[in-house]
Specification:
Blueprint lengths: L2 E6 L5 H10 L3 E9 L5 E9 L2 E8 L3 E3 L2 H18 L3 E3 L25 H12 L1
Parallel strand pairs: 1-4, 5-6
Antiparallel strand pairs: 2-3, 3-4
């Protein structure tokens, strides 16, 4: 059974932590984020360290370094997804193409716009003409 250990780090420790985990042969499990009750952005990097999952947490940052050069596609998908769904930027990450959300669903800051389906259909029909 795997246990979890949360470790708070700063933005400046993200790359060195990722390099240390990679060099130690630890897999990147997930990168995830949320906004806490105080409105602060929290980004967590989870690594498989055998019997322990280490969860490195960064708070209050909206611009973070990309760990794609260290963890390749394992990090790229998660970082790109977070850029689409939240107001987050990963420095050096190619976000020139969307993963799954069309441009007309976003407000330009990564936040999903709630738009009635009939309005979206009309826009898509107009764009297709």
């Amino acid at each position: 059974m795997q246990t979890n250990r949360k470790i708070e780090i700063t933005r400046d420790e993200i790359l060195s932590t990722a390099r240390e985990m990679r060099e130690g042969g630890h897999l990147l499990i997930c990168i995830h984020a949320h906004v806490d009750k105080q409105g602060e952005t929290v980004v967590t990097y989870d690594y498989d360290c055998g019997a322990e999952a280490r969860c490195y947490e960064v708070r209050g940052e909206k611009v973070l370094p990309s760990i794609v050069p260290i963890y390749d596609a394992a990090a790229e998908w998660a970082e790109r997804e977070l850029c689409e769904l939240m107001d987050l930027t990963f420095e050096g990450l190619d976000t020139s193409e969307r993963l799954f959300l069309p441009d007309n669903l976003l407000d330009g800051q990564g936040q999903i716009i709630v738009t009635p389906v009939n309005v979206l259909r009309e826009r898509n029909q107009e764009e297709g003409q």
